[in-house]
Specification:
The chain is α+β, with helices and mostly antiparallel strands and 204 residues long. 20% of the residues lie in helices and 37% in strands. The protein is built from four helices and 14 strands. A hairpin with a 6-residue loop joins strand 5 and strand 6.
């Protein structure tokens, strides 16, 4: 799963996206709260890339987590294997796909010797920014769309940390994911598996 991710203030790709979103917000009238950097938790506001217009990405502020059907809590992930089948996710994955940029995400691994869970930084060794596949919807009486992050079976090298990982896309896969006629299952199958997990020495 993906229950928390991190946005670094020295990540140039994400900072450029945030700058454009904040500029657009100043031109609007909604008075939306600022997008967080650092640790991003469920229900926080984050940056999203929603589509392309004339070959240019469109950036938007969104909130993490669909409201649960019973009104208790939020749904933060959708399983890639069943996302096109589940009623909650079927329409968003068909019509409202997005990318969620992050510097890295976190997972926790049980440590029998320390009797605690050790936090790990999960990152792509080839780049400073990862783009997680997401879907979104606009809920009643809200001005900001909400998103969930797709997850899949974890890559072999990180399965001892957690058995699930976000669907993370390379450049070409990102373009197809955002295109109107994307082959959703093909993009998911081609998503990257090269994520590595590093024990977080700053975890308290």
């Amino acid at each position: 799963m993906c229950g928390r991710f991190f946005v670094a203030i020295d990540d140039p790709e994400i900072m450029a996206i945030l700058k454009e979103i904040e500029a657009e917000k100043k031109r609007g009238t909604l008075g939306l709260p600022p997008i967080k950097t650092g640790d991003i938790y469920p229900t926080d506001y984050a940056a999203a890339i929603t589509a392309t217009r004339e070959s240019k990405p469109m950036y938007q502020q969104m909130r993490w987590g669909f409201s649960a059907y019973d009104g208790k809590g939020v749904l933060i992930n959708a399983r890639a294997e069943t996302v096109t089948e589940k009623p909650t996710f079927r329409k968003p994955v068909a019509e409202n796909r997005c990318l969620i940029p992050a510097t890295y995400y976190y997972e926790w691994m049980k440590s029998p010797t320390l009797k605690k869970k050790i936090r790990h930084v999960m990152r792509d060794p080839k780049t400073t920014t990862v783009y997680m596949a997401g879907i979104y919807r606009l809920e009643a009486s809200e001005d900001t769309p909400r998103f969930v992050i797709l997850t899949k079976r974890a890559a072999k090298q990180i399965q001892d940390i957690h058995d699930r990982m976000p669907v993370i896309l390379d450049r070409e896969q990102q373009k197809e994911w955002l295109s109107p006629n994307a082959d959703v299952h093909r993009v998911i199958e081609q998503s990257i598996d090269r994520i590595e997990g590093l024990e977080d020495i700053d975890d308290t």
